[in-house]
Every structure is written in C-alpha cells, then in structure tokens.
Amino acid sequence: MALSDSVQVLPSVGPKRLEALQDLGISTIEDLLTYFPYRYDDLKSKELAEIQNDEKVTLSGTVASEPVVSYFGRHRNRLVFRLLIKNDVVPVTFFNQPWLDKQVVVGEEIAVYGRFDGNKKTLSGMKIIKAAEGMDSIYPASKSIRQSTIRNLIEVAWDKYQNEIQTIIPSAIRQRYKLMDRKLMIHDMHFPDGQYAAKLARRTAKFEEFFIFQMRLQLVKQADRLEDGLSIDYKISELTDLIASLPFELTDAQKRVVNEICVDLKRPTHMNRLLQGDVGSGKTIVAALAVYATITAGYQTALMAPTEILAEQHAENLQKTFKDFPVNIVLLTGSTKVAVRKQILPRIKNGEVNLIIGTHALIQDEVQYHKLGLVIIDEQHRFGVHQRQILREKGERPNVLAMTATPIPRTLQITSYGEMDISVIDELPAGRKKIKTTWLRSNETDKALRFVRDQLTLGRQIYVVTPLIEESEVMDMRNAQAIYDRLRTDFEPAYKVGLLNGRMKSNEKEDVMRAFKANEFQVLVATTVIEVGVDVPNATVMMIYDADHFGLAQLHQLRGRVGRSNLASYCLLIADPKNQQAIERMEVMTKTNDGFVLSQRDLELRGSGDILGNKQSGLPEFNVGDPVADLKMLSIAQEEANEITDDENWEREPDNQVLGNYLNENWKGHMAFD
Ligand code: ADP
Ligand code: MG
Predict the structure, then answer these.
(1) Which keywords label this protein (predicted)?
(2) Which structural domain, as residue segments, surrounds residue 63?
(3) Share above pLDDT 90 across residues of the chain, in percent, rounded to a whole number
(4) Is residue 658 included in any domain, yes or no?
C-alpha cells in the first residue's frame, strides 16, 4: 500500500469515474489527497443578531410549518417552510430541491445552510446540515464528477492511507519556517477545525508546492551543468584590448555581467544564461565581449535576431565595434541574395567567418557551422522553443546567451526562467537623461502637439502611437489613420509624416522603419507594432494616444524607443483613464523610468489570475500557491532548494531521504523546459 497506488484501488472508482478523475489531474492516491479545496463553508450555527445581510450562514431551529412545494414552469419549483429560532420565525426557501421535504418534519430540530437576506429576514437555503458538521470543504469539480463525490473519495482515501503519509520537507527547513508535518497539513486542508486551522495548513501546503517545484528546477539545472559543454579558453588580455578600444567606460553593471558570462564560458560546462537589461542599458557591447572571448578561443558565434532590421542593426554596430579586431562578420537573412548566400555558406562551413548574424535564416538546414561555440539570441521571447533548440543543435552543446530588454519581474525569474542563470544590467550609462514623462488629458492634446512642433523645429523626430482598435471601440478611440490625416494637415509640407500599421506585411513595416531611421520623414504614426530594439537616436518624443489602453510593460517598451542619445527626450501620455487601476498606471509612468519596478508593479496591478490564464507568459500553474501574491515564500523556497542541491550528494543526507524518494517517484514530465 502506497500513495502511488492508482485511485482505482478505491471501491467506488470504476473506469468511468477514473476517467473523470483523470480529467481533473487525479490518477493516484497522492494526487487525490493533494487535490485541495478552494474554499470552506463555515457551517457552525450563528445567532440571528450577528448575521450580516447576504451572509452565508447556518441557522438552527425548530421546523414550525409543513414544507410546501410549489411548481412554476416545467422544471422549476420551490420548497418553503418556517423555522423557529428562539422567538423569531424565519421563512426558508429551497429552489429545485423538492426531495428535501422528507427531511423537514414539523417540531424537529434542523440546521440549514444558506444565504440570509437581512432586510426581509429570510433564508435562501442551500443545504440541510447533519449535526456536528463544522466546516464544509468545497472542491473544484467538473461536469462528469460532483464535488460531493470528490469529497467522499478523499475521506475514504484518508481513512485508508493516512499512515502512509510521510513529510517531504526536510525537518531543518520545517522547523525554520514553523511548517506542519505533512499528515497534519493534508488533514487540515480537507477537514479543518475552523478557518484558522485551514489557513495554517494552506501556508504549509503552499510552501511544499513551491519547494518541490524549485527542487525540480534546481535538479534540471544541475543535470544541465554536469553534462559536458565547451570550455571557451580565451585570454583576458584580448578582452581588455577590446574594452580599451571603446569610446566609453563600461558601467559597473556591465563589468559585473561580463564577468559572470566570461567565467561561465570558461567552465567546461554548458552555459544557459539570460541577459536582461532595460532598453539602452548597453547589452550589445556585453554580447560583443562574449563574442570576442569565444572567437579568440577559436570558435564561431551566431547571433540570431527576430527581424531583419534588428539583425542589420546588430551587424552595423558590431562591424564598428570590431573594426580593428580579427572578426569576420557575415549577415544572413531571408533577403540575402542567392548568389551572396552561395558565397557565404562555404565560408561559414570552413570557419573563415567567425561571427554570423541573422534571422531565422541561421537555422536552416543548409547552414552548417564550423565550430559553433556560442549562440546569442536577441529578444529571445520572440522565438519559439523549437527555433532556439535547432540553433543549439547546430554545434556540440554550444553555450547559449539569451538577451531581452523586457524586464522580467522576479516572480517570473524564479519560475518560468528558473532553469537559466540570469545576469541583470540594472544601471544605465552615466549621463543618460531620464525620459521626462508627462500625462495630459485628451483636451490638452493641442498643447502636446505644440510641443511636438517645437521639437520638430529643433530637427528632432517624433513617434506618435495609438492603440489598435477593434470595431466596437471605433467610437471612442481615434485610429491611426485619423491621427495620420490630422498630423499631415498640421505638419506637412514642412515635415513629413509616415504611417505604420498592423495590417502591413513585415517587409513593408521594415521598409517604413528604415525610412524613418534615415530621417526620410520626421513623424511616425504607428499602432503598437513599432519594432522594439530599432534605434533612431534622433527621435526625442514618444507621444501615446489613449495611453490608458496599454499595460505598464508596453508603455515602458514604447517609451524606450526615445532617449537613445544625449538629446533630452520626452514621453507624452494622452489619456482619460476611467478606473483607478488605469489612473495608477499613468501615475507610475510619470514617476519612474525603472523597468523592473514597473514590471513588478504591473504584475501586482493585474494580479496573477491574469497571467496564470495567459500561456504566453509561460508561468507554470500552481495548485495552492500564488507566485505573485506569495512571492516572498516562493523566493525562500528557491533559496532552500538551491542550498540543498548545491551539495551533489544531497540525497544521501537522512533528512533529505523522503524528499529524494518523492522526487524520483513523482517526476511528472510537465515542466516547460526547452
Ligand atoms: P540595449 O541594451 O538597448 O541593447 P545598446 O547596447 O544598444 O543598448 O546601447 C545603447 C547605446 O548606449 C549604444 O549607443 C551604446 O554604444 C551606448 N553604450 C553602451 N554602453 C555604454 C557605456 N558604458 N557608456 C556609454 N554609452 C554606452
Ligand atoms: Mg539591443
């Protein structure tokens, strides 16, 4: 007898019920016992005087009238009787449960759970309570299995298996955080003696869930680390030469992450690292140093960007950076001419070229590398898991450096990205001016446009962004076309206005971006499709219409399109927010330029429900824990798991025995790793 037994061992589980349970993710006794209630109804009786209007309560009293069932319509009916509670008479109504009348006998004591109407002093009954029931656990159910059935199964399983339950969390950790043993936790999750006991049990259940999750992550990471990888044996002096050639001094944050990356490259293990830094924090030069370390050690590097224009921009920048260094760069994208391709491919294959920059074109079959030592993936979230995988398989476990300008809030760092090492550039180069952000109401739009004209007069360029519109919203939101028409009337012919919208094909969009970059027009009206990462240093104003329709992360990304030079830059938010949350977003934007602060605030404002439902975010689903609200506990679980797995022989430690066995037996393959 073990918790790993199938639920089929329970007498009332046949093939049909088994299927219903499996649909809920329940296959074993362990699954069933950790299928927790999402709320508890307090069934203890209350005095009439202490009940709030609309409160769900249990009332006990004497049945004072015969139950009467009346039918209305074909399937609907109501059962009514009076309940005498001390000196008060409360009418009780049950809808569509006519069979309850057998349990309602005049003169007998009865307890009824339901919703109390404080004005009419009536009770809308939900169920009749057997004596001695204190709390009722409510489980998520489905069409094919009722929650009362689930509860009964759990009771049976508990009776039979309770002595098999061993505590997974090592006792040292359990004592440190005052957690319950597992048997008590499971008992009190299902059958608590009051809301407080349930709350305490939930605290332990959450920790256990986070801790097991983090143990799995750490073990995957450890396995990855232990497998062989390439050791990039570069010389420090080569790197210092490159650093000395730069027109600026690296920031402390850049130095720190360069060090983290280079130490990792040198290790004979596989690097899997995420480099995060806000727009303008200087990720490119950090990447360049990693490239150079790899190249001087005799390996090739591939840099993959999500769009052609970004790949071109990288090629252009890196050509400059490596002007006086032995780096041979090629650019390979979808629009590279066949003749040029024919020349390039053999040079990649024979190793003559050592830095290959491009788009998806880099992962096509015909591209064969010589000695691929490092793969850099820019804006990594824009690529599918599969594409990243292919590029990796082009070499023998090359080191991987993924880059992103989207600040990843801590919650996601330690869940979705938990298997990667993370380097963060949390500092902007000195002298970078803050982007001054102002929030204006829509009746102040003219003021904003006067400011735009002033900037145009100074020779600057302007982004004007408007949210994508859906048909139903046409009435209250200005669309890009209308704004484009208006700005043309205002500014042409002195200044030219361009338009970029979501319906354009990607090469059309790229052409518009190139033209804007070349200052062929001065004002760019766009829906949110402007390419993140494209540098137009001369653009100094980001004006956003209906800014309250964007999330904080998006607003911050848009704002990052300006402030790419020493010129003073501005962000103008035009918005008439209709709710408190949107007002708060506008205010936060005007107060901080820090992407990490904004992204965590964004998560908090939206709540994890929003993210949990969103597959894109890649946030794993937790059963009891909430990775946003319970961030602190999640972090602690990570630290503890980290500490345990740091010791390669952790499984031999007696205190870790149950944990080790549990992980071996319950290695569910549903973790989202690539
Ligand atoms: P991002 O992190 O957005 O990719 P970039 O690498 O494109 O940022 O850098 C933005 C600009 O800042 C570039 O023009 C780059 O040359 C410059 N830059 C990078 N690091 C520094 C530094 N330490 N001091 C001054 N300027 C820097
Ligand atoms: Mg960049």
Answers:
(1) ATP-binding, DNA damage, DNA recombination, DNA repair, DNA-binding, Helicase, Hydrolase, Isomerase, Nucleotide-binding
(2) 44-133
(3) 55
(4) no
User: The pTM is what?
Assistant: 0.69
Report if residue 665 sits inside a domain.
Answer: no
Closest of 421, 364, 394 to residue 300, by C-alpha: 394
292 and 402 share one domain: yes
Looking at the structure, tell me whether residues 484 and 584 fall in a common domain. yes
In this structure, which residue's CA is closest to atom 15 in ligand 1?
A: 282
Are residue 152 and residue 287 in the same domain, yes or no? no
| Any atom of ligand 1 within 6 Å of the Cβ of 34 | no
- The response to whether residue 282 sits with its C-beta less than 6 Å from ligand 1 reads yes
243 Cβ closer than 6 Å to some ligand 1 atom:
no
We report the CATH number of the domain holding residue 12 as 1.10.150
DSSP 525: E
Which stretch of DSSP H or E encloses residue 540?
Answer: strand 539-544
Cα separation, 609 vs 290, in Å, equals 38
Range scoring the smallest mean pLDDT among 47-61, 94-108, 383-397: 383-397
Q: Do residues 305 and 356 make contact, with C-beta atoms less than 8 angstroms apart?
A: no
**d(C-alpha 156, C-alpha 136), whole Å:** 16
Using the mean position of ligand 1's atoms as its centre, give its distance from the Cα of residue 561 in Å: 13
pLDDT value of position 631: 87
Q: Whose CA is nearest to atom 26 of ligand 1?
A: 429
Q: Of 425, 460, 488, which closes a domain?
A: 425
For residue 254, give the ligand 1 atom closest to its CA: 23
d(CA 656, CA 662): 10
Could you give the dihedral angle defined by the CA atoms of residues 645, 651, 655 and 660, in that order, rounded to the nearest 10 degrees?
Answer: 90
475 inside domain: yes
Domain end position, chosen among 385, 401, 425: 425
Query: Are 300 and 371 part of one and the same domain?
Result: yes
Q: Among all ligands shown, which has an atom nearest to the Cα of 429? A: 1
Q: In terms of domains, do 66 and 14 share one?
A: no
**Domain count of the chain?**
4
Cis peptide bond N-terminal to 247, omega within 30: no
Say whether both 276 and 420 belong to one domain.
yes
Of the two residues 383 and 416, the one the predictor is more confident about is: 416
C-alpha closest to that of 78 among 124, 129, 128, 130: 124
- Buried residues in 383-400 as b, exposed as e (16+ CB within 10 A): beeebbeebbebbebbbb
Whether 254 lines ligand 1, by a CB cut-off of 6 Å, is: yes
Computed from CA positions of residues 103, 104, 107, 111, in that sequence, does the dihedral angle turn out positive or negative? positive
Query: How is residue 594 annotated by DSSP?
Result: -
Contact 109, 96 (CB under 8 A): no
Contacts of 525 (CB under 8 A, 6+ apart): 464, 465, 466, 480, 483, 484, 487, 497, 498, 499, 500
Both 79 and 115 in a single domain? yes
**Ligand 1 midpoint to CA 311 (Å):** 16
d(CA 297, CA 135): 67
d(CA 235, CA 246): 18
Alpha carbon distance 370, 529 (integer Å): 37
286 and 414 inside one domain:
yes
Does residue 70 lie within any of the structural domains? yes
pLDDT tens digits along 551-571:
888 898 889 889 888 889 999
| CATH code of the domain covering residue 542 | 3.40.50.300
Q: How many CB atoms lie within 10 A of CB 442?
A: 12
pLDDT digits (tens, 9 = 90+) for 135-168: 788 898 889 999 889 999 999 999 999 999 999 9
34-38, 303-307, 615-619: range with lowest mean pLDDT = 615-619
